[in-house]
Amino acid sequence: MTFRHRHLLGIEPLHPEEITTVLDLAEKYVELNRQPKKRSKVLQGLTQINMFFEASTRTQASFELAGKRLGADVMNMAMQASSIKKGETLIDTALTLNAMHPDLLVVRHPNSGAVNLLAEKVNAAVLNAGDGRHEHPTQALLDALTIRREKGRLHRLTIAICGDIAHSRVARSNLILLGKMENRVRLVGPPTLMPPRIGEFGVEVFDDMREGLEGADVVMMLRLQKERMDGGFIPSEREYYHRWGLDVEKLSYAKDDAIVMHPGPMNRGVEIDGTIADDINRSVIQEQVEMGVAVRMAAMDLLARNLPEAVQNEGVLV
After folding, report:
1. Angle formed by the axes of helices 285-305 and 137-151, nearest 10°
2. DSSP annotation string for 191-231
3. How far apart are CA 185 and CA 313, in angstroms?
4. Three-state secondary structure along 124-179?
């Protein structure tokens, strides 16, 4: 399999064939996760530490479950109550952890670039579980797997990413990945929630939902990230929903077989109508959650194979 990276810090360094390698392996883990006995020995004897400097439910639970199903010893560090609060620097924390000889570090941090800094200071393989507004690579990979399974391919699709683009690391990782796989990517939302120089990414930008969704194969909604906003980006939530929230009428402009995605957590009645989120014929939001565990299993499996002294373990379903 083609995957030569020591860490998974973002989508940007990945070649299309490496993205395909992760997705192909994840398909095998989807099968494993649907079995009565969901255990593998791929990471047996290895230690995985989850360091979440930001609160998380889905991503942390997904990584923890993925590691345990692969046989790793998994430890969750409560970073909100850690020595960081006592003034310890991120580098000192990294050096302390490195002395414990972990094999895999899963890190989420509110500051862009913090995960990359950690990766430079430790011997373990580092997986970026989201850093600031920078990237969230495993979310983009699980979204890609969901799209490929639903649409039968991951190229030459029209994909509309809608909502708070400016503050979203999910949007950034997705537009990079989908661009690498030769899709037509549209960004839809208010101008105040578009990042500067967005045209440099080779995407189409719309501030009208109906125009942006016209003929789309995939509609990916994003939540308003109020915790990253320090000003008046929208007039009100009610006005935002009226103009940019996904409802039945706006969705009618997309293709009849268009799928609806959302990385979660959802703000029902703000960026998406609850009836659409729960529509089993259009929404693949629960499938995204399922694919998340399989993709994270695949990513950790591939990185473990590239550990300096890793015992090469051929075959995933050991």
Report:
1. 120
2. GGGS-TTGGGGS-EEES-HHHHHTT-SEEEE----GGG--S
3. 38
4. CEEEEEEECCCECHHHHHHHHHHHHHHHCCCCCCEEEEECCCCCCHHHHHHHHHHH
Rg from Cα positions in the chain = 19
pTM above 0.90, yes or no: yes
Question: What pLDDT is recorded for position 77?
Answer: 85
Residue with tokens 């979204």: 143
> End-to-end CA distance of the chain, in Å?
17
Single out the residue of 138, 201, 141 nearest to residue 165, CA to CA: 201
Q: How does pLDDT run across 168-184, given as a tens digit for each residue?
A: 999 999 999 999 999 99
Spell out the residues 6+ positions from residue 162 whose beta carbon is closer than 8 angstroms to its own: 187, 188, 189, 209, 212, 213, 219, 220, 221, 222, 244, 246, 271
